[in-house]
Amino acid sequence: ALQLATMVKDHALAATKLLAKAPGILKEVDDAVIFKNHPAREIPSFEPNELKFGPILGVGGFCVVREVFEVRLKGHGKGEKKRESVDDAKVNDAVRRLGTSDEVENDEFYHISEARELMAKNYKRDGDARYAVKYLHNDLKPLEEARGRIDLAIEAKYLSVISHPNIIKMRAWAACDPLCKDDSYFIVLDRLYDTLDVRIDKWKQTKKKAKGPLGIIGLGSNKEALKDLMMDRLLVAYDLSAAFRYLHENRPWHSKTCIS
What we know:
globular, 15% strand, 45% helix
């Protein structure tokens, strides 16, 4: 029992020391090339009670990802000046012009307060959720929690400057310091309905169906379907390579940054 108590105390002390280093770690991240080449985007902020969470989509070592079921504004975001309400026709026109790309921040219409309204009015597309929220587990041990806070803060920092059509986009974050100790920090991302693992499984099934029962001997194959499958796979490979090239050119990392 004494040994366990000592271990718990040591972990708590290590967590405190790590969090004390956190501002310096985040400052080191600023030395990454991408921050020198790309200014951080303005990111809208939300209070936890402005988002209604849906089902869990995934669980990682530090974080949980859940669907954003609803967005309901309680006012204007933290640090944002109050502005006149955005005209519905103007909002709808912006959404129509933006189409499926959702690149609100690249549109002349964009402003932080308007982005919040756009998200609140369009948190679903054809009945499906458009956003997901990522936040820390609430049962992490002190040292894991400290590492998780810094990890999520670094992720948010990078996603505030990364902008590529084949890389997931951060749409918003919590209206609090990422290193706050009340478990309220989160980031809002585009909700993914497909992943590479899922897509590969679908390709396997499609290939099996297209080849047919006699495909093993070269008979009965649907050559057109197999051709379409190959084109789909090549397009995905191209998109992946484009994303990797963007990251390689912008180098969003820093050799000194290490969370331990």
